[in-house]
């Protein structure tokens, strides 16, 4: 089934719009990171920990970092106590407004992940009205993203022989046989498959056994008269 010209133009517009949105978001992200970096934020630590939020249990992150520090103290022969290690980072207090904003962000992130997992509005885990609203909003976004990424059956549920064909770009799959293949099918249609001939040595005399040599074949010429 060939795509219409209008559909091709629509696909081109959608692609350019999405690309424009992505480029704009990336530009905004780079600008924000630069602003925070200029204000003294360690961007490497920020990005490394922020990527783990919502995916890994916070205590598992702390345990992993603690283990890394333990190995660093042993391998690098660092003699320092825990108080010395965290001397400059004892204060972890944040304001109530910051804590509230972080909670809303966590609700949005969780809603997006729950939407991608197929949960519904009845599964909302929050009693707070503002956090529940943020969760439901991003639940819808996650469900829409899931529909875009997996419009049909998942690859795990598809038979192995069809995975390669379904992984091709849409519109490039073969919808019908090529002319040569169609002709071959028409010629062989209705013909019974020829059974393989079973070889049997019973009742048959075998000829002299051929001796194979590892070296080159020696040809015996007749003697000259």
Tell me the layout of helices and strands.
Blueprint: H1 5-38, H2 43-52, H3 58-75, H4 82-85, H5 96-116, H6 129-149, H7 160-166, H8 179-188
Helix pairs in contact: 5-6
The number of distinct helices, counting runs of at least 4 residues, comes to 8
Distance between the termini: 80 Å
Number of strands: 0
Largest sheet: none
Task: Write down the overall mean pLDDT.
Answer: 77
Class by SSE composition: mainly alpha
Order of helices and strands: HHHHHHHH
Shape: elongated
Question: Which band does the percent of strand residues land in?
Answer: under 5%
Uncertain residue ranges:
153-175
Q: Mind telling me the C-alpha Rg?
A: 35 Å
Percentage of residues assigned to helices: 55-70%
Structure description:
The structure is a single chain. With 225 residues, the protein is mostly helical. Among the domains are: 7-51; 56-87; 97-152. The chain is 56% helix and 0% strand. It contains eight helices and no strands. The protein has helices at 5-38, 43-52, 58-75, 82-85, 96-116, 129-149, 160-166, 179-188. Helix 5 (96-116) packs parallel to helix 6 (129-149). It is elongated, with a radius of gyration of 35 Å.
